[in-house]
Amino acid sequence: MSEREQPTAQPPAVQAVAVPAPLPYGLPVPEGGPLLPAERRLAIEAVEHIAIRVADIRRAEAFYHDFFGMDVIFRARRTGERWEFLPADFDWDAGLRQGIYPEYCYLRNGPLALLIQAAGRGTVFIEPRLQHISLRVASESLVELRGVALARGYAVSEDRHHSFVFRDPFGITWHLTDGQPGPDEPR
């Protein structure tokens, strides 16, 4: 070989670890420390809220209020430089006729808080508003919510003993789990 024909060094082969399926929304599996530890730690205490843009805020409020048993904390609309909070007895039909319509609805049930933003009835969403939201719920709640989702005909993409994934009427994918691995789920 001449000096110009030196062999080039080969990069080391990638070492992958195979895990028996399922994984996706049931997640964990990797054990040990983090793959890439953060250089600094922030004190993140909780998810404050999840914001979802919807075309029909009235239907979205009714769905989340009913399905997840969420309290409606407020409905608000912007008026100039101020926010106006609408009353509990707000009449959606009269409001629409008078040009008074909430831009935001804020709902809460325990640690889950949703901020629903009105994008407008004619809105066409080209990109998903979210990939999915994963909630850990009590086993009894999981059974109840699974039954409601199936009875209402929501698209279910994964249905396991301790978890299920469905898409709500507004295109949001929800992963609900009781946090217990089942026989068909990774430990």
Describe this structure in words.
By secondary structure, the protein is α+β, with helices and mostly antiparallel strands. It folds into two domains: 46-124, Signal recognition particle alu RNA binding heterodimer, srp9/1; 130-187, 2,3-Dihydroxybiphenyl 1,2-Dioxygenase, domain 1 (Roll). Helices cover 17% and strands 27% of the residues. The strands form two sheets. A five-stranded mixed sheet has the order 1-5-4-2-3, with helices on one face. Strand 8 and strand 9 form a beta hairpin. It is extended. The model has no long low-confidence stretch (mean pLDDT 79).
Query: Which descriptor suits the 3D outline?
Result: extended
Our measurement of the CA-to-CA distance between the termini, rounded to an integer number of angstroms, reads 54 Å
**CATH topology descriptor of the largest domain:** Signal recognition particle alu RNA binding heterodimer, srp9/1
The overall average pLDDT, rounded, is 79
Total number of distinct structural domains? 2
The percentage helix is 10-25%
Give the strand content.
25-35%
How do the SSEs run, as a string of H and E?
EHEEHEEEHEEE
* Main sheet specs: 5 strands, mixed
What would you say the CATH architecture of the largest domain is?
2-Layer Sandwich
Total DSSP E strands: 9
CATH top level of the largest domain is Alpha Beta
Q: Going across the biggest sheet, name each strand in turn.
A: 1-5-4-2-3
The parts where pLDDT drops under 50 for at least 5 residues are: none
Taking Cα atoms only, what radius of gyration do you get, to the nearest Å? 23 Å
DSSP helix count? Answer: 3
Q: Helix- and strand-based class?
A: alpha+beta
Oligomer: single chain
